[in-house]
Amino acid sequence: MPDKCTLHIGDKKFDLPIRKGTVGPNVIDITELYKNTGYFTFDPGFTSTASCKSDICFIDGDKGILLYRGYPIEQLADKSNFIETAYLLIKGELPNRQQFQEFSGAIKNHTMVHEQIRSFYNGFRRGAHPMAIMLSVVGALSAFYADSANVNDANEREISQRRMIAKVPTLAAMAYKYSIGQPFVYPDNELDYIENFLNMCFSVPAFKYKINQTISHALEKIFILHADHEQNASTSTVRLSASSAVNPFASISSGFSSLWGPLHGGANEAALKMLKTIGNVKNIPEFIKRAKDPKDNFRLMGFGHRVYKSYDPRAKIMQKACHEVLEVSGKKNDDLLKIALELEKIALNDDYFVSKKLYPNIDFYSGITLNAMGFPTEMFAVLFAVARTVGWIAHWGEMYSDPENKLNRPRQLYIGKDKRDFIDISKR
Length: 428
Ligand code: CMC
Hints:
The protein is mainly alpha-helical. The chain contains 18 helices and six strands. The strands form two sheets. It has a three-stranded antiparallel sheet. β5 and β6 form a beta hairpin.
């Protein structure tokens, strides 16, 4: 493998270093390109651009491989738990028993939020989208935890990371409770992370909520599957906003904003809505036809991925969890599941989807699963974001430990007017 390549512009030649990854594509280092040539590169959507170096997560989109710190997602979903996976993503190695206890104990110590935060919720109309609430209350944490907002202090960064992982589920459950008009439920540190979250979402003062182990294991898997996905839109947003050295709560709130869109974290909500709109297996051909029509902007939600050009490995695990949850919730003959399975079968045998390498992604089955667990569609993106907070915070920490980290400031290809003189309004 060469360690440099040569760029020819006119009769000039420029050497560009090649940097090697452990696995995956190597990169042509263009950091000195503008200085040496006067040219920028152009890559809208970052389809060929590595925006940073990272050792957290690796995806091989052609082979359908996803690794967190080298560990295959299938093994983590099967054998690990969410807090252990969070430790792995943030620290780089699996914890020993003592490290795990210290870490999970520290997260538990931070599960409560300041009482004043409750009043923010009252400002929203009932029925407000819980993601709209989350954007605000996560950013509002900046006003309460200024003592750990110094991004240049490794100790304060660690406290912020733990606070964020601990408090985001509390805020998310409060957003849900507010949207349905039920009282907030305080965290219960006797419970583990996932059980506590389910309890804050589903228990009411009138009777004790009994946690179903199948549901709680399935949610644990869903959280592990969603915890990180290298430089996706929301993680890149967190990195970009954090590059200005803003406090961590503001950066993470920008991650929530980016994740909410239907092409990213809003896709599971959109996928479930689509299955409901299809309504019956016999209507599938009509929707497949629409998805293939270039004049129609309808897309099969939960299908296709920027990186995966084969089956999303998370979708396989999700499909299994979906069957388990539907079984315990008495919905194994669910119409939506029947439509999803048939839609998948038809699309996977259709030339359009095969030639464009469009396979089901994680969101195809997660909507049905979360719905069967009792979460309304509006909460789907919130659940995704609660899990992804771990990935965001891991990348945020990595960024600050990287000596090459600097303010992110992309350039552009300007296609507007050249300099011209102002014309008075009377003469326009
Ligand atoms: N249904 C029908 N056609 C599709 C779909 C789809 N779901 N996805 C892509 N295409 C077509 C698209 O029309 C285009 O066709 P052509 O080359 O003829 O113009 C071609 O496939 C390539 O699409 P693209 O939009 O250029 O590809 P992309 O890499 O920018 O898009 C995507 C990736 C995820 C935005 C897209 O596949 C999509 O919109 N999927 C539906 C939304 C969805 O499920 N998003 C969740 C992604 S997974 C969750 C996450 O990790 O955040």
